[in-house]
Amino acid sequence: MTLSHSRGFTFIELLMTVSIMIISLAIGITNYLRFLDKQSLYQAGSSVESIFKDARSKAQSGFLGNEEIGFCDKLAAVEVLSSLTAESKVFFTAQLRCANADLLVYDTHLVSQTGTVLSQNFKVSFLPMRGSVVLLNSISVASGSAILSRNDNEVTFNLDQGGTIDVKYE
Fold first, then answer.
1. 145-157 in b/e burial notation, b at 16+ Cβ within 10 A?
2. pTM of the model
């Protein structure tokens, strides 16, 4: 009388294999969602960086407007400012400040992801051919930073009166 052994997987072996696969998949999905969240914040930071650089360029070139937004007789400053919406979302506005005090808004950006915060509100006025004026929480500073963050991710905007814009993605 001989005993025959079947060649196959036992239920316990299959259960362990499926469990390991499920745990690996859960870790992978979690990491992917963190990556997407980080990329979303970085994309918002990149949009704001672009607004800053465009505003500085407009001020340096003496941009007076266009048919879409209107025209200034004389440019006083090109401004970028932050604010919060009624839903506590971060909102950025770029505008021309004319010498006669008219404001011509030419660009906006809403950070629509919930949980995004800005460390302090700012207003940067790029002056034609003369640097900038930086206000952080309505206080004039020679240089300073505002941090856009969500979860453990940050985008830091370093600004100074010389018109320098340095953005760090962490």
1. bbbbbbeebbbbb
2. 0.85
